[in-house]
Amino acid sequence: MKAASEAQLRLLDLQELDTALDRLEHRKRTLPELAEIQHAEERLGKFSDAFVAAQTEISDIDREQKKAEQDVDQVRARADRDQKRLDSGQVSSARDLENLQSEIVSLQRRQSDLEEIVLEVMERREEAETRLRDVESDRETSEKTLTELSARRDAAYSEIDGEAELTRTARAGVATDIPDDLMKLYDKLRDQHRGVAATALLRGQCQGCHLQLNTVELNAIRAAAADEVIRCEECRRILVRTKESGL
């Protein structure tokens, strides 16, 4: 392939710009905020699940408390009725009177036991409410952290995109100085060699694979015409001759 030496030198400018674009893209993919956002989202998900669990627990306790209070009311009402019968003198039989008094005592014990259950349930509800407040506070903190991290990420994206846009504009200007066939070869080699298609020959060394060319290879390059497109025999990248090539 033939191309003016000036066009070949422009390949180095193009390569530098493409490498800058690759670095910007890599920076965008590996922003530290991305890992922090993922961690914050995972924490927020856990707190959200814990918040729902705490709400569900309180709802279950409320039903349990309501049932226990209803049981207390039923026992208390039964004891009140028996006490009224006892106080009214309606029961005249000694046996019935003894049974009624025994039942009242039994109901009072039952009421006391049920009231203890109600108190225990109320204590558990207070504990569940404390856990709910703690989880809600943690969730709000995580939401705030996630918002801040997202803002930092978006600001970094904006900065990177701005640099990339300027670099792409500069690249477009450089590309106009390079013949189509050379550009096609360059693009093909970029795909094959991790983005590096053109490199300088610096003091007899290929800056792509960093191998020193031997005397035979260097003599062949010296003998080549200025418009001959040289390829490194080792890595097959385009090898651009410069004043520092050592030829």
From TrEMBL:
Coiled coil: none annotated. Residues 206-239 form the C4-type zinc ribbon domain. It comes from Actinoallomurus bryophytorum. InterPro entries: CT398_CC_hairpin, Oxidative_Scav/Glycosyltrans, Zf-RING_7. Gene3D superfamilies: 1.10.287.1490. Residues 63-87 have a biased composition (Basic and acidic residues). Residues 14-193 form the CT398-like coiled coil hairpin domain. This is Uncharacterized protein. It comes from the Bacteria. Residues 63-93 are annotated as: Disordered.
